[in-house]
Every structure is written in C-alpha cells, then in structure tokens.
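pinging the channel bc i need a second pair of eyes. not urgent but kinda urgent?? the chain im working w is below, pasted from the shared doc
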Amino acid sequence: MSQLPRRDRLPSVPALLRRLNAQHVARLRAAYESVGLEGLRPAHLAVLLPLRGGGSRAADLAVSAGVSRQAVAQVLTVLEQGGYVRRVRDPTDARARLVEITEEGRRALRVTRQVAVASEQRWRVLLGDRRLTEFTQVLAILVEDAEADASREIDDGS
C-alpha cells in the first residue's frame, strides 16, 4: 500500500472525485466497445437504469434523470436505434407510449455492473475492507446531504 500524501498536497475532494469518475467512465466506454455495445455512452445510464423495474414514460425518465424532455428524447432516439430500448403503447393510456428496456439494454446494464464490481474489488485490495466500508459510508453521507440540499433549493423556489 502506498504512503498517503500530505493533505496540503492533495487536490480538493471534488477534483479527486471528478478524476476518479473520469477513470470509471473511460473503463465503461472501453468495456462497452469490447463487447460491441455500439453507440452506448455512460451518460445513457441515466435513462437506462430507471427502466430496470419496468416501462416508463419519457417525461418520467426526464424527471428521474434531472434533465429536459428534449434531452431524454434525444437519448431515447440513440438508445432505440442501438436496440437498447423500445417504445410500446401504454396499456393504461392508448395515447401514451412507454419506454421499455430490451435484452440488449439489459446486457448493457450487466456490463456496467461488472465494471462497477471490478472497480470495487480493486479498491478493496488497495484500501482493505474497513477503509472501503468507511469510504463508502462517507460518500453515502455526502450524497444524501447533497440530494437533501438540492431538494431544499427546489422547495424554496431557488
């Protein structure tokens, strides 16, 4: 295990998280390419992940992803062309369409999960069980606080 650098020589936590995420995104892209998941980008996960539990309307996907309906429509077009999703009639409203994940979309999620598990295994080797658990707990606290803060801003009309 390497010696920890002094705190005054480290980049900020947000900068470190950005760098860690950039590496994860690069691994995802490489994994997608290696198994022939054409046109799929890590950013598309914001639309694919909510579909694991069943079909959803595009407007609901926009809300869950925190993006505009137009942005979701563009992503859905790419995902549909790649065979990752399909649009079907909503059985509760004949005028509406549901977006469903296809088997190819599920395969993409399995590859995504494999990359995440591999990253955690690497971190476990580097950090050990206790430190990885602490790191995970700290990140969960920060995410929960950030999400609560964002909710407060929305509630306050900010």
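so The two ends are 45 Å apart (CA to CA). and The chain has a mean pLDDT of 90. — does that match what u expected or am i reading it wrong
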